[in-house]
Amino acid sequence: RHGAAGGGDTAPHAPRGEDTATETGIVVEGPRGAVPADRVRLARCCTPVPADEVTAFPVRGGGVTVHRESCPAACRMARSGRSAVPVRWRDTPTGCRVTLHAEALGRPHLLAELTEALAEHGASVLSAEVEPPRERRVRHTYTLRLPDARELPRLMRAMRGVPGVYDVARALRTGA
Questions:
Q1: What residue ranges of the chain are covered by domains with CATH 3.30.70.260?
Q2: What is the distance of C-alpha 133 from the center of its chain?
Q3: 91 CB contacts (<8 Å, ≥6 apart)?
Q4: Which residues lie within the region annotated Disordered (predicted)?
Q5: Which of 46, 108, 141, 164 has minimal CB crowding within 10 Å?
């Protein structure tokens, strides 16, 4: 269930004040339940969002960093003997910040159709990057804010439904 090595870089949920730590939607369970909300961080290496299976590890200063259970960095920490902290997502719907990569065959109006799919699912585009085409293939990278994380799978399906798009995946940093 756990993968190979990867980056363990952590940061606050949103670096420029778009969110506060209290908006992570994470509940710390067990004896560490007293972890202050501003000490709960979402790992940048795997960018967990509500509905992902998550685990957390203590960090200096009395906080915890939350990872997807499948995150290579979390798997590496578990294998090295670090104790995980039980955490779960809050039951109420929570928005999320997520980065998606869309791989497609380049064609006219592709950007417009992808951003239309984003808008139809309530996504706010925080940043967008389109890499120059290579052999007709193009990669779009979007950092988004979704009002409800449960919308993410539907959004990704809609993006895959845009003609020419052959893959949509969440970003996973492999080194930090």
A1: 96-170
A2: 25
A3: none
A4: 1-31
A5: 108
Q: What is the pLDDT of residues 72-91, one digit of tens each?
A: 999 999 999 999 998 988 87
Please give the residue that has the higher pLDDT: either 61 or 22. 61
pTM: 0.65
CA–CA separation, 159 and 154 (whole Å): 9
Local structure of 80: helix, strand or coil: coil
Question: Would you call 62 exposed, middle or buried from its count of C-beta atoms within 10 A (0-12, 13-18, 19+)?
Answer: exposed
What secondary structure does DSSP assign to 7-59, as a single string? Answer: ---B--SSTTSSS-GGGS-EEE-GGGTT--GGGEEEBTTT---TTS-EEEEEE
Helix (H/G/I), strand (E/B), else coil: 89: strand
CA distance 157 to 34: 39
Please name the residue that has the structure tokens 């979390």. Answer: 74
* pLDDT, mean of residues 23-37: 72
93-149 pLDDT, tens digit per residue, is 677 888 999 999 999 999 999 999 999 999 999 999 999 888 899 999 999 999 988
> What whole-number distance in Å separates Cα of residue 176 and Cα of residue 171?
13
